[in-house]
Amino acid sequence: MRSHLQQLPKWLRIALIAIVVLLFAAVFAYFSWMITDEGLNRTSHADFCAQCHTMKPFWASYQEDIHGGANEFGVQASCTNCHLDNSSSSAYFMSKAVKGLHDLRVEWFADTDAIDWEAMRERREEYTYDSGCLSCHGNLKDATKRNAKSFLPHKAYFDGTTDKHCVSCHPHVGHKNMSHYIANPHEAY
Amino acid sequence: MKRPGSWRTFVLILAGLMLIGALAGCMYNPAPAPAEAPQASETAPTPVPPSPKTIVVEVERNVGAINPANSLEITRGLDEVAQECVDCHKKETPGIVNDWRESRHGHVGVSCLDCHIVSKEDPTATQHETLVGTDVYISVLVPPSRCAECHPKEVDEFAHSGHYRAALQVEAKDSMQTLMHVHEGRNHPELNNATQETGCMQCHGMRIQLDSEGNPTPETWPASGIGNVYPDGSVGNCTVCHTRHKFDIAEARKPEACASCHLGPDHPDIEIYENTKHGQIYAAEGDTWKWDSAPDAWEPGDYRAPTCATCHMSGIGELSTTHNVSERLYWNLWAKRSEVRNSNDPMSPLTGDGEQGRAKMKMVCTACHSERMTDAYFMHGDKAVRLYNEGYYDPALKMLNELKEKGLLKENPWADEFQKIYYHLWHHQGRRARQGAMMGAPDWAHWHGFFELQQDLYRMEDIYNYRMETGQIEKP
To answer: Which of A159, B214, B252, B442 is deepest in the core (most CB within 10 A)?
Structure first.
């Protein structure tokens, strides 16, 4: 075999090696993509996030909300659609890593009962991302032109004449009756 | 079978017929044939009901006539619940529905719910009987944060203006609370809030409190003041100038919009305006001007003289509109001693940028006047303000401080002749002189201003001399 290979012309040997390397690379890329994508997917939805007890009120209020699937089409936005930076793949990946590690640290090492969630809602702009909203509502700019009363507020947003975020004016989006579940977390199970 | 020319002939004949028809159509006079009307009355003697057009004309002539609101059926742009609001309220509160019908909000389909809906968990959430069992919660309170959803720029500008602190400063100042509840309210166990409820908070605004049901308490609402603090923390009250439920830009552009608060002995701004040539021209012919041009497009020509809004808020020439009424100001003319504005903090008595403010105000003036005239005008005004500062307020304060040092002031300032005159000197006469001078009102600058000021100062000097010489406070 070895002798056979050696007998081949040099260019053919190089070509064969390149094909084998490319094949391995493709298989590697396929599996690593699959594992990464599957991993990202499985750790992006409410059922995963709500494994931590701290998240129960948000899971329960999400279930009752249109974005949580309480709509006639059954469409659901996932937690990461709104709570991670969706502006690019790298931004998404980085924010997932940073937020994920942060949440693990807080869940394991901090006193989560001491968190004033209602007060946190006042700075909701900091942990939701317009890029997330716009990745689904991609045609919002044009769509809101059709309706006179949604045209005006969204015009200011798309013109950049306001620094408001989506959640500034839609403070309850994604979670219905959230205050109730924050105040009564036992009802969220 | 067919001759090749037959279809051409057909088309030519058809075109000819159409041409004749078109010509006939042009020549035909479409005015209703008068002969038809008598024919109709002969055959059908019953009176013809008024056409819808007649009703519309009637409504425009009688703005505020509420009968048409009673029969409204609106589906355009309104969802089912909002239609129910209108269905009931056109009978229960037809004035409100009529206002809305004539508003821009009505035109673009902003419904009752768009402003009044709140989430179930909002502290102001209520449901009246027809909503019980539904998922719809409403509040009678519409805070500026709600207005900001569609008008973010305007609300943000307001939040940087002196108007922003109207209620907050009353709340924070012990002297004002004491004046309201102790001196004016007589410390009455039940009635001490009466002067606040009927006076102060109707201009300054109020921190609105809620009862257990989520409704505003009668002690704090209705508050028509401009600086209301709403339960969600947002500050302001857009409906002071754009009154409910018409929210009319034309209304807010007229001086009367400001006049429910900017009047009286301490800041007679509407009287000052009436005393100016601008005000006189407005009174003479303002009813013929165009008041509803688009924001930033309301320019000289639409009017022949400015109103309060024109100078302090409107887009004019290169200047764009602002809801920050402090933006075009140089002095703080309301203060004890006028200084040049130099603060970004709306809670500061010096909020605004004086130099920029003056430059912007001059841009307003020069939309109609020459630069030479404008410069001279402000030179007049600035001299008057400086004269008040240096000629009246500084000596008055010096005497006050010396008397305080010697213990020759009464503890109750409202029962002390010297302190009463001191208050009138800066709060009443002093403001009239300065505001009258800066806004071109000679009678207010002079007779209600500086003339009174010199009288005040001489009287204060008398009292001061007596107290310093005798070491006693005079008996009345």
So the answer is: B252
